[in-house]
Amino acid sequence: MHAMVSNPNLPLVRRLEAVGFRAWPASSVIYDGSWQVRLTGGHPGKRLNCIVPLDPSDSRDIAIRIEKAGKRFEAHGRPLLVRQTPLSPKPLIDFLVADGWERFEEVVTMTADLGHMTFPDTLDHLPTQDVGRYVDADIAVHGGDAALKPALAEIITGIKPPSGLFVIEDAAEGPLAAALCVQDNDLAGIMSLAVRADRRRQGLGIEILSSALRWARMRGARTAWLQVVAENAQALALYRKMGFEEAYRYAYWRKASA
């Protein structure tokens, strides 16, 4: 019931998790043993507000550590979430099940060999240096809350590795698609990609994805990676078409409502 991919490549999982933390930085990160406790006061994103265990053998004092983290999340006004990856200790997951938690939102982490990737013959877009322009476009195409603009701009400004901010705009209609690519040495992570709801299935997704990956490959990246919600069949099909394959999955746990 709670199984992830069988026999995932744990060194790869560790590397992609570490790269992912740098590519989408939380404003507060503390460690309780090997559990990373991530909190971001200005943004409610789950990746930015969760406990992420990073050692399958670190399962001491689970109840005490969960309670302690819960108080920290409560002080930030955030729901307590645990992010389960193949690095999570099994006793922790057993504890969550017994304590009435529920598992939700499974996410597929995928990788692709950039060196052998063939790109479709689409218009190539160059990244913008204007964080505000990118953030406006990202919120518009996601249909997001404009009040989150300062927090999203702070997150993107806080990304240490080189970042490519890609936007497809129409003079009359405004932003149509947006993508964020973070290049961390030989790895290129697509941290966000969205096409406006009324302009999907028109090739814009593959156009902006190709632009981002071309940019990363030119800068020396050899492997691309991304994360997509397991239920998003359309996105999974697009990424598989581009040569991405599943590396591992993660999911979130929350205390079930009474």
UniProtKB/TrEMBL annotation:
Domain N-acetyltransferase: 121-258
Cross-referenced Pfam families: Rv0428c_C
This protein's record includes keyword Calcium: no
Keyword Acyltransferase: yes
The protein's name: GNAT family N-acetyltransferase
Superkingdom assignment: Bacteria
UniProt keyword terms in alphabetical order: Acyltransferase, Transferase
One MF annotation (Gene Ontology) recorded for this entry: acyltransferase activity
Record-listed E.C. numbers: 2.3.1.-
Enzyme class name: transferase
PROSITE patterns according to UniProt: GNAT (PS51186)
The species this protein was found in: Peteryoungia algae
InterPro entries attached to this UniProt entry: Acyl_CoA_acyltransferase, Bact_Acetyltransf, GNAT_dom, Rv0428c-like_C
